[in-house]
């Protein structure tokens, strides 16, 4: 794991992914100003 990789805030994003669908990635890209980021899904 690269410690310099931007991280999505919060504990788990499973519900956000289900709600936003494909736009989840685009929204986080814009929010974090990066095209790669780390997030948690299903607690992992």
Can you characterise this structure?
The chain is mainly α and 44 residues long. The chain has one domain. Helix content is 39%, strand content 0%. The protein has helices at 14-20, 23-32. The mean pLDDT is 89.
Topology:
Blueprint: H1 14-20, H2 23-32
Given as residue ranges, the uncertain stretches (5+ residues, pLDDT < 50) are none
Tell me the number of structural domains. 1
How much is the average pLDDT?
89
Helix content: 25-40%
Find the structural class using helix and strand composition: mainly alpha
Strand content bin: under 5%
Number of strands: 0
What distance separates the N and C termini? 13 Å
Q: What is the overall shape? A: flat
The helix count comes to 2
Key words describing this protein structure:
2 helices; 44 residues; mainly alpha; single chain; flat; 39% helix
